[in-house]
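One-letter codes give the sequence; the integers encode the fold. A sample entry reads:
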Amino acid sequence: MVPTPGDPKSDSAPASDPEEAKPRGGDGLAPFPPSAPGYPAAVLIGARVEDVRSDPAEIVIQVGDSVALGEDVFLVAYDAGDQPVRGIVVRSALESRFAVLEGGYLRGLAEGTAELRMAIRAPPASGTGPPEMRTFSAPVAVVGRPVARVEIADPGLRLLVGTVVGLQARAYTAAGDLRTSFAVEWRSNRPDLAAVDERGLVRALQSGAAMVYATVEGVEGSLVLEVDESPVVAVEMTGPARGRTGDVLHYRVVALDADGNEVEGVAAHHSVAAVGEGAGHAALIYQDGGFVAERVGLYRVVATVGGRSGEAVVEAVARSVDADARVVGRGVVPDRPTADLWVFTGTDGRDYVYTGTRSERMLAWDVTNPANPTLTDIVEVDARAVGDVTVNAAGTFAAITRDGASDRENGIVILDLADPAHPVVADDYTKGLKEGASKVLFADSLLYVVPTGSPYLHILDASNPTDIEEIGRWGIERPGARLSDLRVADGLAYLAYGPDGVHILDIGDRRWGGTPSEPVAVGSYAHPEGSSRVALPYRSADGHSYLFVVDETLVCDACRSGAGRRAHRSHALVRVLDIGDPTAPRAVARYEVPEAAARNLWVEDDRLYVAYGRAGLRVVDISGELRGDLYRQGREVARVPTGAPDGHIANLPMATGVQSHRGGVVVSDRNSGLWAVELDSPGAAGVGP
């Protein structure tokens, strides 16, 4: 008998306990300053709390130092009249690479800003039902140790009269550590010769020598600039006259002297302006001569060298890459949330999708005919959630993660796929995974596992999937660090570490000496306001190497507006990193749907497929070089809403997992199950993840 997702023999996953959502690390009564001025002698006890704030309002910590909750910092509850309330238990937590909360102490780790999350358990607003968790926040600023030395980097270019060049200051502590956040005061001893503004931009006005100074926290650094008379009499600028929005067009700048010879080693200052009203301010010109337009129209691109200018006029036209995306089949899951998925071709030649659920079940679907996904079996394990699924390249074994087992024997479960329509449990692996696993990935004969709430990647030898052995482990040592996701390609592993950004490891590439048993760190990138959740590498058809990162941040409009109660919402975009040099990843582009948060992604054939939560499935053209805002450039080619009236939660899209297969796309939606989508054109050939 073929089971159905709504089989009554197993209930849906139990409702989550409100205690599960509480921040941890600083529980206790809201402390009051013992004799702080401004606090009334009598305070309310047990009144309804409308706000929780820290005292001081902004918590400032120096890197390496700590402050104590209840001694240096107080968490104070207030009623609707802004009067303090005693007897309130405030639970606090902080997850950031800049600071950590341990044992009631806030410790500064690196320069930056973070939020101390505070929560109380309060009666429901309706007056009936179980208590609800209400959350608030306080800003935490981690400042660097005092500056001991300031240097100005030499731009390494000839400075000609009429030239504008940007300078960069570097500030160091007494220990030689580079400060990452600081304000610079700039000045020149000869502003008539070389004027410098508050941004460090130097404008050469006449020939001679000038000294430019950069002052940081009272410490001064200097650089001598030699300004030469300009021999440039003409500037030639060559490049394309026409391109699509989103295409990166490169322009070559040649400065010529009176004899027609090229003047080398000089800086060119680029600018762009729209011609007419249609285009508006919707194009960028980078200082390396790369131009990209977001809107159609005519643009004038100008390069200035030594007071002389050259220009080019470029027409930006529409990309015209819209694809016809059609939902061809549905696999309805009406009784429980659907988790991530894996699509593969079985040993019997048929196509399958395995989906996890927020329950004890993994669902096996036959999608050989995408118009009619057929549930062939259900695998049940002792778990509260089967969150992730992976299948080996041969299609002979699968691994699923499990959390919340009744006997706390969490970890991963190995499935034998001799009959892929009816997978059976072959073994499990729990060593070091008592808290469960959030991610599992087969790559060749290895199995990579991310333990729940752990900073360590576990690397397992799965050449015999029923006799797995750990051979390697790697992690970052910051207190509170957590690994959330990984992908593997061409001997490199790409790890998403939440607020600690993405880290790249050599696990067999060998350029840096790494092996699976002894991984070697290669490079990393962390956005100041981001929290990396997914990282997927891709090499495009024309040879560009990118890392697509789901980067999450907390947005608090109430905090920004000064409202009392802090109401946070999660927002996540796709950030694009250039990893042509894996030792120095750099952000070059982004794809962001303003009204939703990205959840997961897949890349193949120069197309980016994003499971974009409430925005459903989004498909993006990523051919060629990528720079700037891909959403505004019109690179989105298709969208599919994934809400449905027959889902676990009706008409509320929450696209969670996505993979392309045989020219189509399969999406798992937390609230509505499985979606099979076809697109009208396959796109250009590329090298997949």
